[in-house]
User: What shape does this take?
Amino acid sequence: MITAQATQAEILEEIQRLKKQKNAVILAHNYELPEVQDAADFVGDSLGLSREAETTDAERIVFCGVHFMAETASIICPQKKVLIPDLEAGCSLAATINAAQLREWKAKYPGAVVVSYVNTTAEVKAESDYCCTSSNAVKVVNAIPADKEILFLPDMFLGAYVRHVTGRNLHVWMGECHVHAGIRPEEVRHLQEEHRGSETLVHPECGCTTAFLYYDAAGDMPRNTYFQSTEGMTRHVRQSPAKEFIIVTEIGILHRMEKASPDKTFIPASREALCRYMKMITLEKVLRSLQEDVYEVKVPAEIAAKARLAIDRMLHIG
Ligand code: 13P
Ligand code: SF4
Assistant: This one.
């Protein structure tokens, strides 16, 4: 019996016991609290978490991430019980567009192909042709015939990045994530000056992305600067011979990097880059989720069926 005064070790022990008893798996995004990442069976980026949800044999998925991620898992595996430990864990980027706004936008561009970043609600995905994450957005856009017009949503910085890399003339929705948008290029350039031997890893949702694209177009891209999804960043850090890295994204990812590469140094571009939605998921809430089977995330069948087409196209492309 776990009491209100239980220690973290006792909570963890009970989580492990219940996980076995209930045939559950815990999936956590790279931005989750360190102790939640440590309790998880799998930690990864949006794409990795979707794939893991798809392949797990567990009956229950405790999804430690934000609501659209749990919704995506529920769409992919409707036969499994998908639980999110706090229903308030939303996403400011996903909130920048709803299905009615997307329908209005589509009406202005008949015949255009709609590519939605995974950071969208199920209703928006249901109005989309393709889904994508930051790790496959370029691949997804490249898979669309060159003569097609593309509406890309909802992140303007990721959209600018994909436009730059693919050379496609995308129409981009002007949404942003408040956490990433707040990371300014001056801060990153300053750190690059201070740490000259370092490598810089930038999540393309960041506000500094467009400035870096200008530098690139002008042939003035700072050396050793790479755009990556959160999973791409963790892979890069493991494989690179460099010893110092400037990390330009939400700071939750530092925990995983420091754990995997304790001999390397990670410098966050901004200590303010913290997603309060991700941090709503605590160990206590994970335990309660397992104990009480809360909060189940379900998507109405008609919306799920349409959204699934867009998600499956993405998973098929890679
Ligand atoms: P990743 O897909 O790179 O994990 O990013 C998702 C995200 O931005 C969550 O905030
Ligand atoms: Fe959404 Fe931004 Fe938080 Fe990611 S970091 S979940 S995009 S609010």
Observations:
- The mean pLDDT is 96.
- The chain has three domains: 8-89+278-299, 94-177+306-317, 179-268.
- Residues 179-268 form a domain with the Rossmann fold fold (CATH 3.40.50.10800).
- The two ends are 44 Å apart (CA to CA).
